[in-house]
Amino acid sequence: MAGTDVDVAVVGAGLAGLATAVDLTAANLTVVVFERGDRPGGRVATDRVDGFTLDRGFQVLNTSYPQVVRRLDLDALEPRSFSPGALVRYGHGLHRVADPRRSPGYLSSTLFSELLPWRSKVALAAYLAEVAVMPASRLREREETTAAEALRRRGLDGPPTERFLRPFLSGVLGEDGLETSSRFVDLVLRSFLRGRTVVPATGMSAIPEQLAARLPDGTVRYGTTVEQVGRGQVHHAGGTTRARAVVVATDPTGAGRLLPSMPVPAMRALTTCYHAAPVPPLAEPTLVLDAEERVVANSVVLTAAAPSYSPDERALVATSVLGPDRDGPPIREDVVRRRLAFLYGVPTDDWEHLRTVVVTHALPAATPPLGDLRRTVDLGDGMFVTGDHRDTPSIQGALASGTRTARAVLRSLA
């Protein structure tokens, strides 16, 4: 398509870029999407290793996300659900934290768990009930501070934070200092309380594949590296494409290279260790948290939710670890394995290490001030930028930014 004119050129076929392109083609604009890789999805990707389905980092889809409801055919994804709540390793046992509204069978074990004092349980329940029912628009207007400070003001510091909220949120936020915006944390907890946490039966890559399938044939040009963008032009290995509007939809680091004046947020790193276990260490698809040490952020038996992730009867265990830091080495697999033996309370010597996935740019940091959580996507002069770094660091944020960007492009071309 080099040298020919299109209405819109999109750089990057991640979720935000795909959402933008889907909306613009639906408005009868001619669109081309340049993608450096050989598949859609950006950071949402899946690999096959020895017959196992390994997502590039432990990722999940929340069914309460408004953009998921609007854009995705959930039934076609064949979603496989995880149990609401978590099991927390503290002291000599695993303690259950569950929402009694959704898991009434676990009411007694949650109420009488020794994980938290009664006063802490009441305070935590009140906070979670509040964010569950409050409209998202109101949560975005609440006073903003760090999550740690907001929890302290609510009397949730101490056991509620250290034994549950910090371990639970660390894997979601990519940090365990609770430096993230309190507004975003409220929205995160609201989504977990209102929706199901699922993975597609064939892996998380099914999500971008579904979006890409809605584009006209030939819209996405894979294996094309964009070298430079400017007003009305995209320069790539195949030449130059002229467009009435240019949308940069790469990850934040790539966007910063193409748009030098754009501030690039700090990025959180996450590592996922995948193991195949001859026998499932846990019979239920519930997140396991460590309230005593910070070696592991969380662990889950993926095949308890999605048996299709394994080629046989072996269980697939995914374990998330924060980092590595910018200059630090990845965590050693044997260190993770030893901690998993403690978390699950079973020997792990016969577990097979399938792969360690290090994602150095897993998600943008969402530290305050974020304001209403929406950053501008229209840079002027027919240039636009989209991605979860323009909204919230989540699938919802990526898709929502794509929606906003498409609307901004349509306004500019009207």
From TrEMBL:
Give the SUPFAM superfamilies listed for this entry. Answer: FAD/NAD(P)-binding domain
Ranges for the Amine oxidase domain? 15-410
GO-annotated molecular function: oxidoreductase activity
Query: What Pfam family is a match, any one?
Result: Amino_oxidase
Q: Which InterPro entries match?
A: Amino_oxidase, FAD/NAD-bd_sf
Name of the protein: Glycine/D-amino acid oxidase-like deaminating enzyme
